[in-house]
Amino acid sequence: MGFGNWDFKTMDLTQLTIKEAHNGLRNKQFSSKDLTLAYLEKIKKSDKELNAYLSVYEEQALIQASEADKKIAYGNFGMLTGLPCAIKDAIMVEGLKCTSASKILENYVAPYDATVVKKLKKQGAVILGKTNLDEFAMGGSGENSAYGPTKNPHDKTRVAGGSSSGSAAAVAANMACFALGSDTGGSIRLPSSFCGVTGLKPTYGAVSRYGLIAFGSSLDQIGPIAKTVDDCRIIFDAIKGKDPLDATSIEPEISNFKFQISNLCIGVPKEYFVKGIDPEVERIIKDAIKKAKNAGAEIVEISLPSIEFALACYYIIAPSEASANLARFDGIKYGFSVDGKDLLDVYLKSKGKGFGNEVKRRIIIGTYVLSSGYYDAYYNKAQEVRKLIQQDFAKAFEKVDLIFCPVSPVPAIKIGERTDDPLSMYLMDIYTVSVNLAGLPALSLPAGKVGNLPVGLQIIGNHFQENKILSVASQIEIN
Ligand code: GLN
C-alpha cells in the first residue's frame, strides 16, 4: 500500500501498516492521539462480536499517545513510537490485569513489565489492551479461554486459531496496528494462518521470556503478529536481545544481509504432504512453493524421518513442563481462592474451580508422565525423540537454507467443531510443534484463501536465521 495520495482526514487510519503509520506520524499528517482514537473506536465497534480483547485501557492508551506525540514533536522517536498495539494476556504489563484467560487469575494485576513490554514502552508504543487466548496458552483454536472464544474476523462462525487468538484477530480486524503473541507449539503461527496475518516465532532464546506466564519453559517464545513481513521485522528488532532476567536468552547475531531467493535452496519435507491435509490447503502451499521456484529458488525434497513422533513427543514434554509451572496456582498466592476445611481442601477446590478442563487435562497428563515408574517410559523417551527431531532438522539445514510447509492441515475450523475431541484438536498442531521442540525460528505468511478463509505458508529457518526467513518472505509476500 502506498499512501502518497491518501487523504488522512477521511481515510481509516487503522488500515495502515507500521511503516505507513510511522511515516504519517513523521510527516505530521496525523498524531498518535488520532491513531489511538481510531483504534479505540474500531475496538468499540467490532470487538463485542469478535471477543479479541479481554481488557482495553482507553485512558492509559491516550496518555501514552500524548507522551508519544511529545517525543515526535521533539524529533526524538523510533519506528514504534506512537503506534497502538495489543498484548497477549499471558504477557505482563505493570499495573494491568493479567489473566492468561484463566479464572484462577481473574483479578491478578501484573506487578512488573515483561521485558518485551519494557522495550515497547521505551520505544513509545501505545498499549491498547490485553488480548484473549486459550487458557494458559493451552490450545489451538482459542476456544479454551475462560472468557469465551475469539471469533475469526473472516467468518464469525469459525475460530481465530490459538492460542494467541485475540492478538491475531485484533491485527486482522484492524483493532491494533500490531500485537505480541507467544508460541509454545504453534500459538503465533496457527492464529496468524487462520486470520490471514503474518506471525513470527523467533529462535528459542532470541527474545526474553521474562514476564511471560510460563507454560512449557523449554518451548515458550514471545514474538510479533503484524500485517506485513516488514512490520514483523521491525517488532522483532525492537524486542529481541539478551536479558539478564532470562538466563536462556542470548544476544542473537542476526545480519541484515538481503538474501535473494534466487540464490537459495528450499527444502520441502515429504512427510508433510500426506493423508489428512485439506486438498485446498495443499494446493495453496504447493502454489507458494512454485512461486519460489519461479523466482529462482532451488526446490528439493527433504526427509524428516522422526517428525511422525513430534506430536506425541510434544504432548508429553509440554504437559510435563506445564504441570510443574502451574503448581504455583494453588488458591493461596494469586488471589482466586475457594474456602475449604483445611489447606488441602483449599488447594483442591481452588484448582478444581479455577482451572478449565484442558488445563486440568494437561496437569494430569504431565503429573502422570513425570511420576516415578513412568518417568523413563514417557518423559525420558520423549526427550530422546526430541533429540532425534533436532538432528533431523540439523541434517536438513546442511543441505537447504529454508523449509517451506503448511502451518496447519486445515483452514479455520467451526466454533465447537473439535471441542469434544482433544486428540483431533491436537492434530491441528502437527506441522508446528516440531519447530518448538528444535528451538527453531518460523514464520506464518498469508499464502492464499479457501473460500474466504486465509491459509498460511510456514517458512522454517535454522537457529537465528530470522533475517533469511524475513528476506525470503518479503519477496513472495502477496500485496
Ligand atoms: N496448540 C498447542 C497446544 O495446545 C500449542 C499452544 C501454544 O503454542 N501455546 O499446546
Structural topology:
Blueprint: H1 18-26, H2 32-50, E1 53-56, H3 58-73, E2 84-88, H4 115-123, E3 126-131, E4 151-152, E5 155-159, H5 165-172, E6 178-182, H6 189-195, E7 198-201, E8 222-226, H7 229-239, E9 265-269, H8 279-294, E10 298-302, H9 310-325, H10 343-354, H11 357-370, H12 375-399, E11 402-406, H13 422-426, H14 433-437, E12 442-450, E13 453-461, H15 466-476
Helix pairs in contact: 2-3, 5-6, 7-15, 9-11, 9-12
For CATH, the homologous superfamily of the domain at 13-239 is named as Amidase signature (AS) domain
Please trace the helix and strand order, writing H or E for each element: HHEHEHEEEHEHEEHEHEHHHHEHHEEH
Radius of gyration: 21 Å
Q: Which term fits the overall shape?
A: globular
CATH class of the domain at 13-239 reads Alpha Beta
Report on this structure.
The chain is of the alpha/beta class and 479 residues long. It has a domain at 13-239: Amidase signature (AS) domain (Amidase signature (AS) enzymes). It contains 15 helices and 13 strands. The chain has helices spanning 18-26, 32-50, 58-73, 115-123, 165-172, 189-195, 229-239, 279-294, 310-325, 343-354, 357-370, 375-399, 422-426, 433-437, 466-476; strands spanning 53-56, 84-88, 126-131, 151-152, 155-159, 178-182, 198-201, 222-226, 265-269, 298-302, 402-406, 442-450, 453-461. The strands form 2 sheets. The chain has an 11-stranded mixed sheet, with helices on both faces. The protein has a two-stranded antiparallel sheet with strand order 4-5. α5 (165-172) runs parallel beside α6 (189-195) and α7 runs antiparallel to α15 (466-476). The termini are close together. The mean pLDDT is 96. It binds glutamine. Glutamine (GLN) binds next to loops.
